[in-house]
């Protein structure tokens, strides 16, 4: 579930704003994911794009069989300061 929603988030972010090139996402960077049935709420997510991390919130609803996304909403926040990356488990680009 989480993996499918993370991939959907990165795809939607890039489609929304082509300047973003998400290559990694952590759904629980500042708060744990909340899973209820086939829905994931990730209010404390973060994604990496072009060597920088950005705050992210998303809601992802999967089909009853869990094989496709049927609902998705997201909100991109501010850049995450580099001095917080280690504390939040956000890896720098290797």
Number of DSSP E strands: 5
The biggest beta sheet reads: 5 strands, antiparallel
**Cα-atom radius of gyration:** 13 Å
Residues in helix, %: 10-25%
Per CATH, which architecture? Roll
Principal-axis shape equals: globular
How are helices and strands ordered from N to C?
HEEEEEH
For this structure, the CATH topology is Nuclear Transport Factor 2, Chain: A
**Poorly predicted ranges:** none
Distance between the termini: 27 Å
Task: Tell me the β content.
Answer: 35-45%
Number of helices: 2
**Could you tell me the mean pLDDT?**
95
Task: Note the main attributes of this structure.
globular, 94 residues, five-stranded antiparallel beta sheet, 20% helix, alpha+beta
Offer a quick outline of the entry:
By secondary structure, the chain is of the alpha+beta class.
Provide an overview of this structure.
- The chain has 94 residues and is of the alpha+beta class.
- The model has no long low-confidence stretch (mean pLDDT 95).
- Strands 1, 2, 3, 4 and 5 form a five-stranded antiparallel β-sheet that branches.
- The protein has helices spanning 2-16, 85-88, and strands at 22-26, 34-36, 39-49, 52-62, 69-79.
- The protein has one domain (2-84): Nuclear Transport Factor 2, Chain: A, CATH 3.10.450.
- The longest helix is centred in the N-terminal third of the chain and has 15 residues, at 2-16.
- The N and C termini lie far apart (27 Å).
- Helix content is 20%, strand content 44%.
- Strand 4 (52-62) and strand 5 form a beta hairpin.
